[in-house]
């Protein structure tokens, strides 16, 4: 008998979840690429106008990233059973037992198959979501304090303006038409956000590497179509998954 004859397909990721995943991948790649150039702008000899242009591109990609993330959060309330919070977040009755059994089975070769996220994946997905949300919130604040972009840019302009009626005269990287004391206060307010944004970026890079590595290892061990499922929406298993209906 051909081994593939015992395999059965199971639907798992709906179209919206798959679209979110790949838009998220592309926007993160774009944000990382542009962000690294911004981070090392001085070493690369980027001019002030060049930095403003790079930050503008970074912010526009960030808007797509944020909208996509917000949509995914909403979808976790209304999507199919494998897209919902219950299937994403760790915890709940029996989670620790399921985690121990999954780890033991993975080590011994007696693999427990999951149609949705396995217990280890839930931990990683939760970490990624926390880091993505942190990046989104701090990034929006920095967009307002750096280049006066929405949603907070106009409020920041009014804060630092010498004349609140002439906020249109305030330009990024220029101290003309700003009150020096209030501008200094704004920069002090900004400082913890840029620190959090930077270090959560480093953590996100590490988490992404671990996430991709875990996917590859799991795919090699389980051969369930884990990677292709993000294109097709379906996994294949030789046995009925633990979380299948």
TrEMBL record:
What positions does the domain Cytochrome b561 bacterial/Ni-hydrogenase occupy? Answer: 12-233
**Transmembrane residue ranges:** 20-40, 52-74, 123-149, 196-217
GO molecular function terms listed in the Swiss-Prot or TrEMBL record: electron transfer activity; heme binding; iron ion binding
List cellular component terms (GO): plasma membrane
The record's annotation in Pfam families points to:
Ni_hydr_CYTB
Looking at the keywords, is Transcription present? no
Q: Which UniProt keywords apply?
A: Cell membrane, Electron transport, Heme, Iron, Membrane, Metal-binding, Transmembrane, Transmembrane helix, Transport
InterPro entries listed in its UniProt record: Cyt_b561_bac/Ni-Hgenase (IPR011577), Di-haem_cyt_TM (IPR016174), Hydrogenase_cytochrome (IPR051542), Ni-dep_Hydgase_cyt-B (IPR000516)
Superkingdom, taxonomy of origin: Bacteria
The subcellular localization recorded is: Cell membrane
Bilayer topology term = Multi-pass membrane protein
GO BP, one example? respiratory electron transport chain
PANTHER family assigned to the protein according to its UniProt record, in alphabetical order: BLL0597 PROTEIN, NI/FE-HYDROGENASE 1 B-TYPE CYTOCHROME SUBUNIT
Protein name, as recorded: Cytochrome B561
Q: Which organism is it from?
A: Candidatus Thiomargarita nelsonii
Q: Highest lineage ranks of the organism? A: Bacteria, Pseudomonadati, Pseudomonadota, Gammaproteobacteria, Thiotrichales
